[in-house]
Amino acid sequence: MQRACGVSSLRSALQDARYAAFFSIVGTMVTATVLMLALRPPLPAATALKGTPWWNWIGGPLGAIFVLSGASLVPKLGAAAFIASVVAGQLAFSLFLDHFGLMHLPQQSITPGRLFGVLLVFAGVMAVKYL
Hints:
By secondary structure, this protein is mainly alpha-helical.
């Protein structure tokens, strides 16, 4: 979560959220590459790569969207409201995933208590932003 705030600062320096996100992600790639070269973990089997469900591959694009969103929205919303909104959205979507047992998760129905918990988080977002 700190990344969104740091990218917002880079955005201010560069005057462009797109370049801030780009350079942040390039830094991630350089770091990951250096670590892979230093640690030299064994390559995964081709069958493991081919058999991986599609949703396992969307972390990179979603991460890029998150970084760009942080660079664009933190100056407008503030860091606390942005992070609170991200957590609320993730929690609501997680409840949906659990309820339907998507992505090979064990199915856990939406109960009044779980729904109330999500609503409390959304109320927290409103409090952070407007109170």
